[in-house]
Specification:
Length: 491
């Protein structure tokens, strides 16, 4: 992405901060400016018990977020990169304060210092892991909670309250069923964006996917079909056109698999086949049955907590059939089965590669919110600058059109829609991905870009081209010209 949009957004925010009539407003605007240069904020949201914290742990590769129903799960928690472990508590009133913490079975137990969740704006956990470099994961309380106060925290943090700036640049939304509350939440997140109607900053994950297939060995295949149906559902597609199945529990277990756990799974796999079949029939049997030469109920209960019934079934089958022979091979096989790799790849293409653009979009939305909420004579002029910036930005236009194409709002032949989606960055933001060719020397990529530019010019000039397609052709031409003037510029 060209840096011109980011530079222009930064310049507008800087001018607003310099002219602000009060130190408080100037500080708020400078915090917004810092956000433009900071990491992408990806929120993980969903209904209660959707598996948000478990999936966050899987993405980080460490058992940090608590998955029980404790007080910390009722507080919005940011997980960001830090050179040393640190926990900051941000109260609703007053400066942030350091809080002590300890690890229990890996997950963090944070001392809130007697504060109630309703007194806390958010917690910030800084952790030295490469997976959080350039990315802040925001763990949110479940929506549609019995406690309306808990649900309200997630809505306020991600969609912004009246006169407040939302904290998330993008959302990974966990679905178990396409419930009305899920649709309402994603609608609210979409509507607060500068480019309304753009669902490109929302990815759906069919969480706890193994349960959809009753934890059978083919559960993830079944879940993939269900995810595809969701993605094709007009209600879901309009807000979240991409839905992938993922088993966060299995992905996290694979990332943190221990040798002792492999040994216990191997012991189960060595038992007679009929006994193994009876043992793995239900979770209750797995946790309670007695079998000779078996690791024992306590260890099996631990395996059930770590891998789930589906994970134990898959692991025992892989070991028993000889497909894996050690802990490392089992971890790789389970990671592939979990859907975590596909989700990470999708997040890279959807969010990480266009991180600066999504941050710029969020800062524009925040700047608009701040300016509209203040009685300041110069605010109207600055709002005018924001509107002119948005209307003249080809990067934001691409993002908007990409969302329109993905949701089916633009009626085009399938091949032409696919070509435009690719060109607008739907499969990656680099020149090779946009042009739909393998990595090649820049001279070859430039020739392909010129050929595609000529093709879209011909389509635009055709007498039967509709007004809608003509507008799309103009955007395609501008994308290709930007590419030729930038990444593929000649010597």
């Amino acid at each position: 992405m060209s840096t011109s949009l980011v530079d222009r957004v930064g310049a507008v925010v800087d001018r607003a901060a310099e002219r602000a009539p009060s130190a408080e407003l100037s500080q708020e605007l400078r915090a917004l400016r810092a956000r433009l240069d900071g990491p992408l904020r990806l929120a993980i949201a969903g209904r209660v018990k959707a598996g948000k914290s478990t999936l966050l742990n899987a993405l980080v590769g460490e058992n940090l977020a608590p998955t029980d129903a404790g007080e910390c799960t009722r507080v919005v928690t940011w997980y960001s990169y830090g050179t040393a472990p640190r926990v900051l508590l941000h109260p609703l009133d007053g400066p942030p304060v350091d809080r002590p913490f300890r690890r229990d079975e890996g997950s963090l137990i944070i001392d809130l210092g007697g504060r109630q969740p309703e007194q806390i704006d958010h917690l910030e956990v800084r952790w030295p892991t490469r997976r959080l470099q350039g990315l802040t994961l925001v763990d949110t309380p479940g929506i549609a909670s019995i406690s309306t106060e808990v649900s309200a925290r997630t809505h306020q943090a991600l969609t912004g309250d009246v006169g407040q700036v939302a904290v998330a640049d993008a959302v990974l939304y966990l679905l178990r069923h396409a419930h009305a509350s899920d649709m309402n939440f994603m609608e609210a997140f979409r509507d607060r964006q500068v480019t309304e109607g753009t669902p490109v900053n929302t990815v759906g994950a069919l969480s706890r996917a193994d349960e959809i297939g009753s934890c059978r060995l083919d559960s993830m295949t079944v879940a993939a079909r269900v995810a595809q149906r969701y993605a094709e559902d007009p209600r879901v597609r309009r807000l979240c056109p991409t839905v992938v199945p993922v088993n966060g529990l299995l992905g996290h277990a694979a990332a943190t698999l221990r040798e002792s756990e492999f040994a216990d799974l191997a012991a189960i796999a060595r038992a007679p086949k009929d006994e193994v079949a009876r043992l793995l029939l239900t979770a209750d049997r797995l946790g309670r049955s007695e079998i000779p030469e078996d690791p024992g109920p306590a260890q099996r209960e631990h395996l059930l907590d770590r891998f789930g019934l589906f994970g134990v079934r898959v692991a025992v089958q892989l070991i028993g059939s000889g497909q894996v022979t050690n802990a490392s091979e089992l971890a790789d096989a389970l990671r592939r089965r979990s859907g975590l790799q596909e989700l990470r790849s999708l997040l890279t293409v959807q969010f990480t590669e266009r991180s600066r653009l999504l941050r710029a979009q969020s800062v524009l939305a925040g700047l608009r919110t701040v300016l509209q909420g203040t009685d300041w004579p110069e605010a109207a002029d600055l709002l005018g600058e924001v509107e002119r910036l948005v209307s003249s930005s080809h990067e934001l236009e691409e993002l908007h059109l990409l969302g329109e194409l993905r949701t089916g709002a633009i009626d085009l032949p399938e091949a032409r829609a696919a070509a435009l989606e690719r060109l607008f960055g739907g499969h990656g933001t680099g020149p090779a991905a946009r042009l739909g060719v393998a990595d090649a020397p820049s001279t070859d990529l430039r020739q392909e870009a010129v050929a595609q530019l000529d093709s879209w010019h011909r389509v635009a000039r055709h007498p039967l081209t509709t007004r809608q397609l003509h507008v799309l052709c103009q955007s395609a031409v501008r994308s290709l010209e930007t590419m030729l003037d930038g990444d593929l510029a000649g010597p």
